[in-house]
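Researcher: Checking consistency across runs. Here is Ketoacyl-ACP synthase III again:
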Amino acid sequence: MHTKNTSIKAKIKALGKYLPMKVLSNEQLADEFPTWSVEKIYEKTGIKKRHISEEKETCSSMAIKAAEDLFKKTNLDRKDIDYILLCTQSPDYLLPTTACIVQNKLNIPKTAGALDFNLGCSGYVYGLSLAKGLIESHQAKNILLITSEMYSKYINNKDKSVRTLFGDAATATLVSAVESEHDLIHSFIFGTDGNGAENLIVPHGGSKEPISDSSNQEFEDNHGNVRSPKNLYMNGAEILTFTLLNVPKSINAVLEKAAISKESINKVIFHQANKFMLDKLKKKIGFSDEQFLVSYEEYGNTVSSTIPLGIINGIDNKEIDSTKNILICGFGVGYSWGGCIIESIG
């Protein structure tokens, strides 16, 4: 615990979520891919179902519904929100900024700041860091931190390698200024290795490779997965290698920075990539089953939304005590990773 004189600190006050109604089950996937049984899909991923956005749903519409869920849980007037941070890799448009659209639809004051930031699996940690910086430098008092991801829009239906893993979801977190003697969100560590950028990528659609006739040309890889250059591609083996190399070091760095032991951590919530990866990380780092919270089974990999969904699950299932240390760590696309400790929620 970082003890200091009483001063303004950032605190997570409440969280909300939105999950699309449409569900993709292992049974549906097994029907489409006869070589993969329901049991095989679950054994490989640990995932039972994924929520998939409807064709007309957008990043902003999901973000708004998550925020509305949050507002139901708190007595804060939305007019008191003075900043919106929206993490997404599936914005409504290349421009304008989706956070600006969300501000208008939610009737957040025009005096509020609003920005998007493009990060994936590490995005929630980075968002908390940005919120903490804005609050503790007295630039904002109540921040709406939103994650809204719809990777399904980028996935080819004939590519089982990613279709079995990813789901869509949005979350909203209220981060507010409070007076406290110690940090309530602290010991941030970050990491970046752009050398791995091409191992999790949508090749076409940006300024480097705009959408063209070739963007729609499908091809089949060595494993029978079909995709085109405008679809999501993931090199699972390389992502696993990167994760097992960097995440354990990052966790040790967070603990060292916080000057607390592994045993002092009440709960651990990692980015919910898949069962195989998380089981390996838990064993390698040495967290107990009781410490290690998982939520991938019901949602799949929802990118930047996995950690806040895990926090919400932990609170709903009474697994998280509001005043105990929670260690979170996000890692993946970029490559990008980050971790921190949350001391208190609510």
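Researcher: Does this match what you'd expect to see?
Model: One thing to look at in this run: The two ends are 18 Å apart (CA to CA).
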